[in-house]
Design goal:
Blueprint (H helix, E strand, L loop, with lengths): L1 E4 L13 E4 H5 L3 H13 L6 E6 L5 H14 L4 E9 L2 H10 L5 E4 L11 E7 L8 H13 L2 E4 L11 E5 L2 E6 L1 H12 L2 H9 L5 E4 L6 H11 L7 E2 L20 H7 L7 E5 L6 E5 L2 E3 L1 H10 L14 E4 L5 H9 L3 E4 L7 H5 L5 E4 L3 E4 L7 H15 L3 H12 L1 E12 L1 H13 L1 H4 L3 E2 L2 E8 L2 E2 L6 E2 L4 E6 L2 E7 L7 E11 L9 H16 L1 H5 L6 E2 L1
Parallel strand pairs: 3-4, 3-5, 4-9, 10-11, 10-12, 15-16, 15-17
Antiparallel strand pairs: 1-7, 2-6, 5-6, 8-9, 12-13, 13-14, 17-18, 19-26, 19-27, 20-21, 21-24, 22-23, 24-25, 25-26
Helix pairs in contact: 2-3, 2-5, 4-6, 6-8, 7-13, 10-11
The protein binds 1-O-phosphono-alpha-D-glucopyranose and zinc ion.
The site of 1-O-phosphono-alpha-D-glucopyranose has 14 residues, from loops.
Length: about 550
């Protein structure tokens, strides 16, 4: 065992979901090691503890895992559970932590960010409940990175990650496991596989799933092809690649091009779906029809008792603040609470653990439930597949009927990417300073009824998270939200979220871009976007 002298890096503060940097940045000497030792120090008393370890398979995944194994051995861990070939989807890692009751896990992923030598890499720690570490833990990790002076590492040979089984390094057992079967078994417990199978067999139900050359390929093949009988050609891009085939593994209309083409063609299957780099995001499509993630969450909530695992009903729901208020309408009708949390899955953990909620989601293509403590891409796809099998209606019909009952929330997110960080901070600061002056102002066809900086007090542990995004509330019922991304690796990304409620069923089938256009213009004026960013329009709209 070696103790290696090191000195702090000042840029290891975890963002919305762990530490993300360009891969090359991670590859510099001591960078990964410093962060890992800082996680271990935050866990404390690591002797005899156990961890789950795996990543989304992107470039640098395997060398990073080999390093972490050696460091875990030197820090006295007793057992590591590692996905075969070092691969674990984020939901599978969450499941394994919970199922095998480990002291948490380390997940290597930069989620939907591109991978490869010139792409991004990331690392995060999940706590023993299976969920992303809450802010007090990530803050402790960050503080450790600022004072670190040495780390411990074993000098053993690399472990073979390809073969299932156990290896011993001193007192530590390294177990290479097949995570696909555990995950697929859990899905069978939640959903009615028999019913879905019948639909697939009788050709009344079909799905095209795009794994985007990311981590869900093996999970999707086992579940959709082997267990549900789907034709193999309908699971596309299912071989995980270190650089995701050069693509951007983000399941949205802009990046899942191949799937979009299939779903907009005459031969489109009933359901189209995709998942991201690490398998926690999902996109849901019908034939020539896109379901916004916010609507998906609302439809799920409204139909939750149709699904085997949730038959008894649920205690409550939650959404991140910028997610549309579609789910709020459902919660109101069901008479259950709806919590509004800051952006990032870590804020749902306490609510799920305390059984205040059983279903939650984010506008950023994330939905999940109390079955684990991460959002879950394949779980969401199976929800829709099961719902289609029950309702025997098209995706479009299910969603438009939902709007008739609850109203429609037109929704769009406009991202201004890789802008100068100083200008982005100035934009937010300037906006913050003028908030109170905005109230009651008439802007275009709207009046500003409220303007505030979102702060959240966790109802379970009382912790406070301030400055979580600026909300401009408008009358008639609409919202514009501004916040800076916490997952980017180059400059800053300004996210502008636009939402407009329409209760009148005769006005619910308009084009989203057209409906939101006035709000997009207003957002530019309110935050002086062109002045601060030099951009006249957003780079990506989802
Ligand atoms: C983005 C999403 C957020 C999600 C996170 C991790 O974070 O907006 O909802 O939880 O990725 O997948 P952001 O870059 O906005 O901080
Ligand atoms: Zn992800």
């Amino acid at each position: 065992m070696k103790t290696v002298k090191t000195s702090p890096f000042t840029d290891q503060e975890p963002g919305t979901s762990g530490l993300r940097k360009q891969t090359k940045h991670f590859q510099q000497a001591h960078y990964l090691e410093n962060f890992v030792q800082s996680i271990f120090s935050a866990i404390g008393n690591t002797v005899g503890k156990t961890l789950v370890l795996g990543g989304d398979g992107r470039f640098f995944n395997v060398p990073a895992i080999q390093t972490i194994i050696k460091m875990a051995a030197a820090n006295g861990f007793s057992r590591l559970l590692i996905g075969q070939n070092g691969i674990l989807s984020t939901p599978a890692a969450s499941l394994l932590i919970r199922k095998y009751k480990t002291d948490g896990g380390i997940i290597l992923s930069a989620s939907h960010n591109p991978g490869g030598q010139n792409g991004d890499f990331g690392i995060k720690y999940n706590t023993p409940n299976g969920g992303p570490a809450p802010e007090k833990v990530t803050e402790a990790i960050y503080q450790n990175t600022l004072s670190i002076s040495e780390y411990k590492i074993e000098s053993n040979e690399d472990i073979n990650l390809d073969t299932l089984g156990q290896t011993q390094i001193n007192d530590m057992t390294v177990e290479i496991i097949d995570s696909v079967s555990d995950y697929a078994d859990m899905m069978e417990d939640i959903y009615d596989f028999e019913l879905i199978k019948q639909g697939v067999k009788s050709k009344t139900l079909s799905l095209c799933f795009d794994a985007m050359h990311a981590v869900t390929g093996p999970y999707a093949r086992e579940i959709f092809i082997n267990r549900l009988g789907l034709d193999a050609s309908l699971v596309i891009n299912s071989i995980p690649l270190e650089d995701f085939g050069g693509g951007h593994p983000d399941p949205n209309q802009a990046h899942a091009e191949e799937l979009m083409k299939i779903m907009n063609s005459d031969q489109a299957p009933d359901l189209g779906a995709a998942s991201d780099g690490d398998g926690d995001r999902n996109m849901i499509l019908g034939q020539n029809f896109f379901v916004t993630p916010s609507d998906s969450l609302a439809v799920m909530s409204a139909n939750i008792t149709e699904i085997k695992a949730y038959k008894a009903g649920i205690s409550g729901v939650a959404r991140s603040m910028p997610t549309s208020q579609a789910v709020d309408k459902v919660a109101e009708k069901l008479g259950i609470p709806c919590y509004e949390t800051p952006t990032g899955w870590k804020f749902f953990g306490n609510l799920l653990d305390a059984n205040k909620i059983a279903l939650c989601g984010e506008e950023s293509f994330g939905t999940g439930s109390n079955h684990i403590r991460e959002k879950d891409g394949i779980w969401a796809v199976l929800f829709w597949l099961n719902l289609l099998a029950i309702k025997k209606q098209s995706v479009e019909k299910i969603v438009s009927s939902h709007w008739t009952i609850y109203g429609r929330h037109y929704y769009g997110r406009h991202d201004y990417e890789a802008i100068d960080s100083n200008s982005a901070n100035k934009l937010m600061m300037t906006l913050r300073e003028k908030l109170t002056g905005l109230i009651s102002k008439k802007v275009g066809d709207y009046t500003i009824t409220d303007a505030c900086d979102f702060a959240y007090t966790d109802p379970i542990d009382g912790s406070i998270s301030a400055k979580q995004g600026i909300i401009i509330q408008l009358n008639p019922d609409a919202r514009i939200i501004f916040r800076l991304s916490g997952t980017g690796t180059q400059g800053a990304t300004l996210r502008v979220y636009l939402e407009k409620y329409e209760a009148d069923s005769n006005k619910q089938s308009f084009d989203t871009t057209q409906v939101l256009e006035p709000l997009a213009e207003l957002s530019k004026t309110i935050a002086d976007i062109v002045h601060f960013t030099g951009r006249t329009s957003a780079d990506v709209i989802t």
